[in-house]
Specification:
This protein is mainly alpha-helical and about 475 residues long. It has helices at about 1-10, 15-40, 50-70, 90-115, 120-125, 135-140, 145-155, 160-180, 185-195, 200-205, 210-230, 245-250, 255-270, 280-285, 295-300, 325-330, 340-350, 350-370, 375-385, 390-395, 395-420, and strands at about 85, 425, 430-435, 445-450, 460-465. The strands form two sheets. The protein has a three-stranded antiparallel β-sheet with strand order 3-4-5, with no helix packed on it. A two-stranded antiparallel sheet has the order 1-2. The longest helix has 28 residues, at about 90-115.
């Protein structure tokens, strides 16, 4: 909380990373354990000394993230290059690149839906969706998010065209359908971030703090609501919903993020078994290699726990659930995720604490570049913000491969567009004569209309008076 107050006092930016990642950390490592303790839900899983040990690590990790995030300069962060409007040529290149990415993503999504028998079969049961045995096909559907981000940038930075709005709807609609009828919190948060934060970040404007806080609370409730009603959200359901989402916080379940994450730290500490970066390296070096070429790639890389069975995580939850039975006497629920601090502890032991500071500094650095330089950095910050829920609530593997899929194509398309000669339209002042000032014959009342790149936040225009002879120069 103090880190959020410090960030707001310095930056006055509701989209500083502390302002939306901070509440998630507070929820996972503050509110959730408090609610679990109030109903004695932790008694059957841990001893008090174990909880103190784990909570100390959680607090150190959170404090490190806050420290790293606030070491990047907060004051006097003002738009510079980010004010510039895209030229028509650069905009066309962004649109063409976006269409290529979007069509590939849409084709992959439709192919996966067809494989399971169509929309009704894909979304006719709870927590389902399309499927393909090839990981490239499954992951390629995320390219529609890249397309949406790029097209939105051109629409807001250049001009609104009806066909651009159509493209946005076409590439977002499949993921909206998937987020609703599979009740997945990750895609839901990602969509809301792109739609809610994206336009403000691209235009370098910000909503009021109170409105942003209320929107954040609403989004949090929506995510908990989807998870609580996961078994009732599918095509053909009777849609009998519950609005009581407290069970998702204080339910004594081995799939609860705090309970599972605590178990991960204790099991790893008791067994002194840490990965030292191998799981993360596997996401970059091993995962891209098709299993048809290297069927035993994870086992050969020394990570048999990451070996997939028909594309689904094994019962060890990609290596985070090992040792639970022998150390704790219970097994974590399949598909559970430990949260960022526990995941970094599994990977780097005590070194995970300073790495949390590095992650915080990276987020803040990209935020600063997005505000000052904009354009490609804005796109990257939108992507990183959208993935922040995976960072906090799941594990680094979920962030790494998604970041590669979303960030790299966007960067390549932007790089191609920025190679255009005169990629930006310089900021200029257009003057429009609007009448005679005070009836004087020697002066004309001139309205100074800032170029669109000026992004005048309150929409005001400046009225000035100039000698009549100067109008030709204007």
């Amino acid at each position: 909380m103090l880190g959020m107050i410090y960030a707001w006092d310095g930056a006055h930016d509701v989209f500083h990373p502390m302002m939306f990642i901070g509440p998630m950390l507070l929820f996972l490592y503050g509110w959730m354990p408090l609610k679990l303790l109030q109903v004695n839900s932790l008694d059957g899983f841990f001893q008090i000394d174990q909880l103190i040990f784990v909570q100390t690590i959680n607090l150190l990790g959170t404090a490190a993230f806050v420290f790293g995030c606030n070491t990047v300069g907060l004051r006097n962060v003002r738009p510079q290059l980010s004010r510039l409007r895209l030229s028509d040529c650069a905009g066309k290149k962004l649109i063409s690149g976006a269409l290529v990415l979007g069509v590939i993503g849409l084709a992959a999504w439709l192919f996966a839906i067809r494989n399971v028998g169509g929309l009704l079969a894909a979304f006719g049961t709870a927590y389902s969706g399309g499927w393909d045995d090839n990981g490239y096909v499954r992951d390629a559907s995320m390219l529609m998010f890249c397309a949406f981000t790029l097209i939105l940038t051109v629409t807001l930075k250049n001009r609104v065209r009806p066909r651009y709005l159509l493209y946005l709807a076409i590439f977002l609609a499949p993921w909206v359908m998937q987020a609703i009828f599979t009740a997945r919190r990750g895609p839901t948060f990602l969509i809301c971030t792109l739609v809610g934060m994206g336009p403000f970040l691209i235009l370098n404007r910000r909503p009021p703090l109170v409105a942003t806080a209320l929107a954040g609370l609403g989004l949090g409730f929506l995510i908990l609501f989807l998870v609580a009603n996961r078994n009732s959200l599918y095509l053909g359901s009777d849609f009998q919903f519950t609005t009581d989402v407290t069970s998702m916080v204080d339910k004594p379940d081995t799939g609860n993020e705090y309970i599972y994450g605590t178990g991960c730290i204790l099991a790893a500490e008791a067994r002194q078994n840490f990965y030292w970066g191998r799981r993360y390296a596997a996401q970059i070096l091993v995962r891209p290699i098709p299993k048809e070429i290297w069927p035993t790639k994870y086992a050969d890389f020394g990570l048999p726990a990451l070996q997939e069975v028909m594309g689904q995580a094994s019962s060890s939850n990609v290596g985070t659930g090992e040792g639970f039975s022998e150390v704790l006497g219970w097994v974590g629920a399949k598909g559970s995720a430990p949260g960022v601090v526990s995941d970094l502890w599994l990977e780097f032991h005590w070194l995970g604490i300073p790495i949390m500071a590095v992650i915080g500094r990276i987020y803040a650095t990209v935020w600063r570049k997005a505000v000052v330089e904009g354009h490609v950095w804005t796109a990257q910050y939108v992507v990183m913000s959208a993935l922040s829920i995976y960072l906090v609530m799941q594990q680094m593997e979920a962030v790494i491969f998604r970041l590669l899929i979303l960030s790299l194509p966007v960067w390549l398309v932007w790089r191609r567009a920025l190679r255009t000669k005169n990629a930006f339209v310089p900021e200029r002042e257009a003057y429009e004569i609007v009448g005679t000032a005070d009836g004087s014959k020697d002066f004309l009342h001139v309205q100074k209309t800032p170029d669109l790149s000026g992004h005048i936040r309150d929409g005001r225009r400046a009225n000035i008076v100039v000698p009549k002879g100067y109008t030709e120069a204007l």
